């Protein structure tokens, strides 16, 4: 591990962070705007009103991570220079989880006065200050003085991060164990910065101060020790009027143990001395105060255990807190991070742990079960939903407590946060909002599948659709119970109901295509794809999803046979939406038509343009080939050329379209406006129609895997009723997204 870490850090370029430009710097004019003489304009505005720095500079998204390296986790006092890799790492986490930019500042200063003066002098640079790895008791003094002096948030993560995350865990642990915060007897091992801050925060959550017993290396913090001057001004707040004793004495009868000290100091006997169903947060790193297995084996009742390690359940990891707390504070220009904001963060984290966990998170942690209970009381650090739950809660608390200088429309704010994590989230938000305005009944042909059941629960929770689960009702109800989901979906069991009318409907549709009445009855009973297709075709459901457990062709065949294409359509097609940081592409056809002629290409272009508009994207279509506007003339290049000509000459086509053209011509503005200035496309295309299925499928997968695009789809266009065929292995979020698309389809918004 050491050698791997050294290689990781020394490989070119050394370190883990860099500065990147956010504006164009390609021309002389760009440089004139970025620096002299254009830069004078924002300088004058800021000189007249200092608040304009948030408008014209990166201040509002820039945090200073400041340390003197006097208390680096696991390493101790290693000095400012040696702490730099840690501070760079902190910057990586800020950027990765909350899109916050960081300058790491290492100050070679041991004197608190000099440290405070140096940090205070940097206030014009930053929107917030994250203090890191500063030894107690100076860390308390430094934070207090800077908070009083600066008008931007100051937050010592070593104190408050652990407090907030473990506080969220405590809220859920108390609920699971049936205990009460007000009556909770809590024993702390450790009396340093993290322990004092955590104990103080627990009081804010509802634990009574007189019920907290704190121990340091010399034993219990008692009033006698405080009066003798043995304690500092910060930890003496938790001195109790009780006999002196050691940690073992303090743990007798305790409901909860909180370890912020050293590994291996708690024995199984000490755990057995605690109250029923004890809560044990052994957070020393890298070795907890008691090993996870030892604590669990020490008792026959429920032991709710958390550590600071990622290889055991319930990791108390500060990355669940500081990026999102600062994100919320920065976005409302808060003057501080106050107690109300911290409490809001803890409650938001606790609530999130009770929600269904995304498949991507489960996979990231080795497919281990993640369901609210003793082994899952806090979310995992890689859960992207933390941004959308904790950040708005912090922002709201800042506004309500008077710490904010800006107010936010929180619904619109969540959409802005979605956009920070990628264009795909921003685009899907458009469709999700439309779906919520008028939810539709969605037939889910694979209703017994666990992933489908979880997706159905989220459809209801998010208000985007009314799912109908098709399949064995007992199995579906059992899956809901096993997953701990609390929802009552509409379940349709083809084997237990009277669906003779469905069989008759299928027979009417297919009797001249080789199906008998008996075969129709059997397919309705045994094949949920046919059942769901008939359900939609009869109007008993508004849309259908299938394909999660079937090959694409076999899943597509029943809806094509029963529902068919729209009255104005001859062909269906599969479209992917690919989203990049600053661009969206709709790619067709990637799943259906193997060797389309000009008729198919023309129709697929129309369908795909309509789909783009459902995402509020004005389409600009390019029909692709390996030829540019006749540079190669053969049967293959004539098909997209002819389709493009027809579309351009059709007065009903109200979007720009051109072709045939090469892919780089379609997406690079300088080629369109320079080399091919005659093109009907004045801007790069956002609808790319490939010449055949091979090219489309290969192209979208290369863009997704090597180009870093997020893919949503495939979305089936051209059907008479909304039907979408999932990909095998799709996650819950993919199914929910396609359900939203299907709902918008069913709303009739097809223009």
UniProtKB/TrEMBL annotation:
UniProt cross-references to Pfam families, sorted A to Z: malic (PF00390), Malic_M (PF03949), PTA_PTB (PF01515)
SUPFAM superfamilies: Aminoacid dehydrogenase-like, N-terminal domain (SSF53223), Isocitrate/Isopropylmalate dehydrogenase-like (SSF53659), NAD(P)-binding Rossmann-fold domains (SSF51735)
Domain Malic enzyme NAD-binding: 159-399
One GO MF term attached to the UniProt entry: NAD binding
Residues in Malic enzyme N-terminal domain copies: 14-147
InterPro entries with a match to the protein in the record: Aminoacid_DH-like_N_sf (IPR046346), Malate_Decarboxylase (IPR051674), Malic_N_dom (IPR012301), Malic_N_dom_sf (IPR037062), Malic_NAD-bd (IPR012302), Malic_NAD-bd_bact_type (IPR045213), ME_PTA (IPR012188), NAD(P)-bd_dom_sf (IPR036291)
UniProt superkingdom: Archaea
One record GO biological process: malate metabolic process
Cofactor(s) needed for function: Mn(2+); Mg(2+)
Keyword annotations from UniProtKB, A to Z: Metal-binding, Multifunctional enzyme, Oxidoreductase
Family membership: In the C-terminal section; belongs to the phosphate acetyltransferase and butyryltransferase family. In the N-terminal section; belongs to the malic enzymes family.
Protein name: NADP-dependent malic enzyme
Originating species: Natrinema longum
């Amino acid at each position: 591990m050491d050698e791997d870490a050294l290689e990781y850090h020394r490989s070119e370029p050394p370190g883990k962070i860099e500065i990147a430009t956010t504006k164009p710097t390609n021309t002389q004019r760009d440089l004139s705007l970025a620096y002299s003489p254009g830069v004078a304009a924002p300088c004058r505005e800021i000189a007249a009103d200092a608040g304009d720095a948030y408008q014209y500079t990166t201040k509002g998204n820039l945090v200073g991570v400041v340390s003197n390296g006097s208390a680096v986790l696991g390493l101790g006092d290693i000095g400012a220079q040696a702490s730099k890799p840690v501070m760079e790492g902190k910057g990586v986490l800020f950027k990765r989880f909350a899109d916050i930019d960081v300058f790491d500042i290492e100050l070679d200063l041991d004197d608190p006065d000099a440290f405070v003066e140096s940090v205070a002098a940097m206030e014009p640079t930053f929107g917030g200050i994250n203090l890191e790895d500063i030894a107690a008791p100076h860390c308390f003094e430094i934070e207090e003085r800077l908070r009083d002096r600066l008008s931007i948030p100051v937050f010592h993560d070593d104190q408050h991060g652990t407090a907030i995350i473990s506080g969220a865990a405590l809220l859920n642990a108390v609920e699971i164990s049936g205990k009460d915060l007000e009556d909770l007897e809590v024993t702390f091992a450790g009396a340093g910065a993290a322990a004092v801050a955590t104990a103080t925060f627990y009081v804010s959550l509802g634990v009574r101060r007189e019920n907290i017993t704190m121990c340091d290396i010399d034993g219990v913090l008692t009033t006698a020790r405080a009066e003798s001057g043995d304690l500092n001004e910060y930890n003496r707040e938790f001195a109790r009027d009780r006999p002196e004793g050691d940690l073992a004495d303090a743990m007798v009868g305790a409901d909860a143990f909180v370890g912020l000290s050293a590994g291996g100091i708690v024995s199984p006997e000490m755990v057995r001395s605690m109250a029923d169903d004890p809560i044990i947060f052994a957070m020393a790193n890298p070795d907890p105060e008691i090993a996870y297995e030892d604590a669990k084996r020490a008792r026959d009742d429920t032991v709710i255990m958390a550590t600071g390690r990622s290889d055991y359940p319930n990791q108390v990891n500060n990355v669940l807190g500081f990026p999102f707390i600062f994100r919320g504070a920065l976005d409302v220009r808060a003057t501080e991070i106050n107690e109300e904001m911290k409490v809001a963060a803890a409650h938001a984290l606790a609530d999130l742990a009770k929600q269904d966990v995304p498949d991507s998170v489960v996979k990231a942690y080795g497919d281990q079960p993640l369901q609210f209970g003793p082994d899952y009381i806090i979310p995992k650090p890689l859960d992207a939903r933390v941004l959308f739950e904790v950040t708005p809660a912090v922002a709201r608390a800042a506004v309500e407590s008077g710490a904010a200088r800006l107010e936010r429309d929180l619904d619109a704010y969540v959409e802005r946060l979605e956009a920070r994590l990628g264009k795909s989230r921003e685009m899907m938000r458009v469709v999700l909002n439309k779906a919520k305005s008028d939810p539709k009944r969605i037939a889910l042909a694979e209703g017994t599948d666990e992933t489908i059941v979880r997706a159905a629960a989220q459809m209801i929770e998010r208000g985007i659709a009314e799912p109908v689960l098709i399949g064995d009702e007992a199995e579906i109800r059992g899956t809901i119970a096993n997953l701990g989901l609390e929802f009552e979906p509409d379940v349709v069991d083809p084997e237990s109901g009277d669906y003779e009318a469905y069989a008759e409907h299928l027979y009417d549709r297919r009797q001249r295509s080789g199906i008998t009445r008996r075969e129709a009855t059997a397919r309705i009973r045994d094949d949920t794809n046919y059942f769901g297709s008939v359900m939609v075709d009869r109007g008993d459901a508004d849309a259908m999803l299938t394909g999660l457990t079937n090959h694409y062709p076999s899943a597509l065949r029943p809806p094509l046979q029963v529902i068919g294409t729209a009255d104005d359509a001859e062909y269906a097609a599969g479209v992917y939406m690919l989203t990049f940081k600053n661009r969206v592409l709709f790619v067709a056809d990637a799943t259906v038509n193997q060797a389309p002629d000009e008729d198919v290409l023309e129709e697929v272009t129309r369908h795909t343009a309509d789909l783009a508009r459902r995402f509020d994207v004005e389409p600009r279509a390019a029909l692709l080939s390996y030829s540019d506007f006749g540079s190669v003339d053969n049967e293959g290049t004539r098909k997209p050329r002819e389709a493009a000509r027809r579309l351009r000459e059709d007065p009903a086509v109200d979007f720009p379209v051109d072709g045939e053209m090469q892919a780089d011509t379609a997406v690079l503005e300088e080629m369109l406006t320079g080399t091919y200035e005659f093109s009907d496309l004045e801007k790069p295309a956002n609808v790319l129609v490939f010449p055949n299925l091979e090219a489309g499928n290969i192209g979208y997968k290369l863009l997704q895997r090597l180009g870093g695009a997020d893919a949503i789809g495939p979305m089936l266009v051209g059907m008479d009723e909304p039907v979408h065929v999932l990909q095998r292995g799709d996650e819950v979020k993919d199914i929910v997204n396609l359900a939203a698309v299907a709902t918008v389809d069913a709303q009739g918004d097809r223009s």
